[in-house]
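User: quick one, sequence for these tokens?
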């Protein structure tokens, strides 16, 4: 918990409520495996929280396939300056996420029930995040159209990060991305460090769609300050 206190700071009590909710309701509803309950902090919460160091101040973020809220809810806890949309197509998961938002009092979060490919015309955000959603080759097709020119995809990946980046090269070239790199964040806080694939989106005309700011859809839930 010493590391958790260092990472979350004053927001640690909120993170603890989220961890308790995950360990009980998350397991009971099948959003995380029962074996994960005993290793929530290092494997999940801290692993996701350290990603915040790669996100600029006051960024608008969409978390693709948010599931149980990893990393989107964690980022909202540790970085209240971020404006985060949790994008998730399954009803039982969006129900869980809305309950999280209410329980934790996260005023910087909106939950949206949708697939990324169905809302491409509605988003032009600074950062897209994703964890354990799909191989990078497929994830890039969903994420890059949601970004403004110069926006970044931050994909949390494991040991195959470099291989996935190589396999995705044809798709990334097709989208005209500006740059790609592998990052490791959280050294000394989580072992192993969290591995990120960072992909910077190219020009608007290369992405090939009209860029628009996110708008709220019917049935979505938003906490406003």
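Assistant:
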């Amino acid at each position: 918990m010493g590391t958790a206190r260092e990472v979350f700071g004053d927001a640690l009590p909120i993170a603890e409520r989220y961890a308790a909710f995950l360990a009980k309701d998350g397991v009971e509803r099948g959003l995380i495996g029962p074996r994960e309950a005993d290793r929530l902090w290092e494997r999940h919460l801290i692993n996701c929280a350290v990603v915040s160091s790669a996100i600029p101040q006051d960024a608008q973020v969409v978390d693709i396939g948010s599931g149980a809220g990893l990393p989107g809810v964690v980022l909202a806890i540790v970085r209240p300056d971020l404006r985060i949309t949790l994008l998730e197509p399954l009803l039982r998961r969006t129900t869980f996420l809305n309950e999280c938002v209410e329980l934790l009092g996260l005023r910087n979060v909106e939950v949206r029930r949708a697939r990324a490919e169905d809302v491409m015309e509605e988003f032009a955000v600074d950062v897209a995040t994703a964890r354990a959603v799909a191989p990078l080759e497929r994830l890039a097709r969903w994420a890059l159209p949601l970004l403004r020119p110069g926006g970044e995809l931050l994909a949390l990946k494991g040991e195959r990060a470099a291989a996935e980046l190589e396999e995705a090269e044809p798709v990334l070239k097709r989208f005209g991305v500006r740059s790609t790199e592998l990052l490791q964040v959280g050294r000394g806080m989580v072992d192993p460090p969290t591995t990120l694939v960072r992909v910077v989106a190219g020009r608007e005309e290369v992405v090939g769609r009209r860029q628009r700011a996110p708008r709220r859809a019917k049935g979505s839930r938003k906490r406003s300050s």
